[in-house]
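Notebook p. 47: complex prediction with magnesium ion.
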Amino acid sequence: MFKSIPSISSAKQLLDQSIRQTKKIKIHDRDKRYEIKKTVIARTDRFISTLLANLESYVKNFPSIDKLPLFYQEIIDIKIDTNKLKKSLGAIDWARKTVAMVYSRQINSLTKTGNIEFLKQKQKEIYGRVSSIVKQVDKNLLFLANAQKILRAFPNIDDGPTVVIAGYPNVGKSSLMRKLSTAKPEVAQYPFTTKQIFVGHMQEIVRYEKKKYQIIDTPGLLDRPLKERNTIERQAIAALRFLADLILFIFDPSETSGYLMDEQTYLLDTIKKLFPDLPFIIVENKADIQKTTSGYRRISCTTGEGIEELRHEILSILKKM
Ligand SMILES: Nc1nc2c(ncn2[C@@H]2O[C@H](COP(=O)(O)OP(=O)(O)OP(=O)(O)O)[C@@H](O)[C@H]2O)c(=O)[nH]1
Ligand SMILES: [Mg+2]
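Predicted complex, C-alpha cells below:
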C-alpha cells in the first residue's frame, strides 16, 4: 500500500548527496576561462536540480491523506499525527519552492559575468543560501523519515468480508488467529503482546471456487472511555470501526489473563453498544483449564477443541456478506 514512498534523508544527507552528484562534472572548452565558467554553472545546476528532484519526490510520493480509506486515515492519526504530517509535507514543499526561487533569481548573475572570482563567489553564496533553507526543514525531514518507516510497515488491507477478533489483553486472540489463518502473530503470556493490528486470511472452496476472507487480530482492550485509551488500544477500536463485518469476541473465563470475567463482560457490553449493527460471535477460550455453564461456544487454542466448529460459524456468516 505505502511501498512507493521513498526513504527520506536528513538535510545534511540531502545536501551531501547533491554535492556529490556535481563532483565529476567537467565541461571542456579551448578557452580556459570559458571552461571554468561552464563547469561552475553546470555543477551549480546539477546541485540544485538533484536537490529539487529529491524534495519533489518526497512530497509527490506521500499519499494524499484525505483520499485514503478511513481506516488508514485513522491509523495515521493515531500512529503518526495527521496534522504534523501535513505540516511537514507543507514545509518540504515550501523548501522546494524557495530553493527554486533563489536559484532562478541568481542564475542570471552566473551566466552574465566574465569575472571568475565573482562567479565562484556567487556559487558559494547560492550553496550557502540553499543549504540554510534545507537545514530549516531538517526536523520536518526527520518527522517524515519516521512516518515513512511506520507507513511502510502497515499491513495491506482489502475491502472483502472481514472478521475482527477483540477482547481483553492476554485472553488468546493471537493464539486463535494462528489457529484460524496462516498469519503468525506473536503469542506470549503477558498483556499487550500485540501492539498493532495483524491481517490474515481464511479460505474456503465453494463449488470449486476459492473464497478468501480477511481476519484481523487486534491489541487487547481494557474497559475504559475512548479518550483514556492508549494508542495501542485505539488501533483496535479503529479496526472494529472501519473494517469489521463481524466481531469475534473472546472471553477468558480462567482469568489467567489477569482480568476478571466481570471486567471482560463490561467490555463486551461497551463494544456491543458502540457497534449495535454488527453481528457478534462470542466464545470462551482456554476451555482446557476452565469450563463454565454460560452457554457460549467453548474453545481451546491449546487442544484445538471447538476451533473447527468456530471456523464453520465464522465462514457461514462472512459468506453472506
Ligand atoms: N491454557 C490455555 N492457554 C492459552 C490458550 N490460548 C492462549 N493461551 C495462552 O494465553 C496467553 C496469551 O495468549 P495470546 O494469544 O498472546 O493472547 P492475546 O489476547 O493475543 O494477548 P495480547 O496480544 O497481549 O492482547 C499465552 O500464554 C497463551 O499461550 C488456551 O486455549 N488454553
Ligand atoms: Mg495478541
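Notes: The first strand starts at residue 162 and ends at 167. The mean pLDDT is 95.
Next step: compare against the earlier run before touching the bench.
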